[in-house]
Amino acid sequence: MKCLNSAEIEDYILQLPMPAEQREAAARHIASCARCTLLFEAELDEQARAAEALFADELPASFTADVMAKLDLERELPAGDPVPVRTRKPRLRWKRAAAVASVVLAVGAFAAYSSPTLADLVRSLFSQATVDYGLLQAKELGLVSNPNVTVKDKGFTIRINEAVADPARVVMALQLSGPDGKNLHDRLSLGEPNRIVVKDDQGREIGRLHDVGMTDAFYMLIGYFAEPTSADHITVEGTIRRLGNEMLRIPYVEGNWDFSFDVDLRQAKAQTKVIPLHGEYTAPDGMTIRLKRLIRTVQGVRLELDTELDAQALARSPGELWKQQGLRFHFEDGAGQEIHSVNSRKSPFLASLMSSTQTADARTGLMHMSYTFRYLPPGENYRFVLDGYFVAENSGSSLDFKPITLKEHPALFNDAGDELRLTGFEMDASQDNPRIKDVEGVLRVQGGFANEFHRDQWVVRDPQGNEYAIQMRGVSLMGEKIVLEHESAGKDYAFRIRGLRTIPDRLTLVRKVIDRTYSNVGWSVEIKEKE
């Protein structure tokens, strides 16, 4: 992938609409390219300075005028014609603060917003950067709670003023501010000793909240339940004992910012609808899919189904490998138009998946799966269409090669429809921890995968029989085939080999596990929500 310019990196930071594969490609490229990493950090720094002004506890009286002065917006817009930020760029690069404000202002309500109101809007779960269909539904039905949580210790303050819950998930906005009153988004990490859990009315833990990012105005935290809860009330309990960030070299501060609040689910439960589903299909290579039910809640639509592998399929995926699987499917409306896709390789494709779960049954080969979508058309009939599935299997395919001759004489690896071209070998500084001076082998690769590759396991074996695990670094573009591009400008995709510190005369490339894709399926079933 070619390097990004500042405008493209700004679009990435601002979460402006772009295909999922393009966003994934940009994220991997920025992580692996020194030039783009520096540009990304500079853009974030500029955004942070602008955000300090917007998200301070007290805003200057000139706030709205300042925003207007920094935006190249036409004040007269046709009614109901919101103009995307892309089409009207800020005169000055004011980052997310100006971008979100410009969306608000562009809908033709310039005079309606005073400075505090505008600031409250972009701080909210319902800002342009974070809102989804489920949140809008919850707001429309009056299901937004105000926990009114304020906890202070060691000069840092945690506030929670918005939470939305239904039997399937909890979403809340958590603000963290420092001694100077400015919002912080780099000091709270969830994971011991910090955790935020959800408990039902019997005190049982039914979920944990995780930071999904999306905005620097607050921590957007979401927790999905493995099973929809039947509780009338749930409790959100936070145990926050440490602030800081080791990776960013921000010293830890120990303290106590614990909190707890209850949410009444009775109204949300009344809006929940369970639709039994019927349909079973066995694919030629041994996977059976059984639809179970559709659960329509205020915030989303949950599809539940089971998969089961037969004896021959399990033999290809021994031990725990069979649990590493996934489905590829989409929904179509009555006219055959695609509504949403899951794990699609088409570009572009429609997606509204919020979360998915996989739980292995006690019986080997049986898996319980769920997929929660932001939106599926309510009160309509549509069709579930299976496009394929993938599962981790033993492989063992290998290729011997001479590292020093690859540049002049590339080696070809062909296996199960995957075609790789080994183009070079070099030693490079280890990327795992820049503070530790070490080197590692780098195998340069071109080509692509017809199969999935996220669960692949690759090693190289030296002449003495020592094996070294491979980390795949670089960018993959989704299409009918996953195409390996560049780790960085001028450098092919990288198979990085930690622990290999010299270049042997010969090496063997071995794929121990393949994330095999099966597309030879042909099944669809109508989902009837309309009687």
Keywords:
single chain, 531 residues, alpha+beta, Immunoglobulin-like, 4 domains, 14-stranded antiparallel β-sheet, 6-stranded antiparallel β-sheet, 9 helices, 32 strands, 17% helix, 40% strand, globular, transmembrane helix
Provide an overview of this structure.
The protein has four domains: 116 residues, no CATH class; 136 residues, bacillus anthracis domain (Immunoglobulin-like); 125 residues, Immunoglobulin-like; 125 residues, no CATH class. 17% of the residues lie in helices and 40% in strands. It has nine helices and 32 strands. Strands 17, 18, 21, 22, 23, 24, 25, 26, 27, 28, 29, 30, 31 and 32 form a 14-stranded antiparallel beta sheet that branches. Strands 1, 2, 3, 4, 7 and 8 form a six-stranded antiparallel beta sheet that branches. Helix 1 packs across helix 3. The longest helix has 21 residues. About 13% of the residues have low confidence.
Question: Care to give the gist of this entry?
Answer:
This protein has 531 residues and is α+β, with helices and mostly antiparallel strands.
CATH class of the largest domain: Mainly Beta
CATH architecture of the largest domain: Sandwich
Q: If you compute it from the alpha carbons, what radius of gyration comes out, rounded to the nearest whole angstrom?
A: 26 Å
Helix content: 10-25%
- Determine the CATH superfamily of the largest domain: bacillus anthracis domain
Organism: Paenibacillus solanacearum
Pfam families: DUF4179
Transmembrane segments: 97-115
InterPro entries: DUF4179
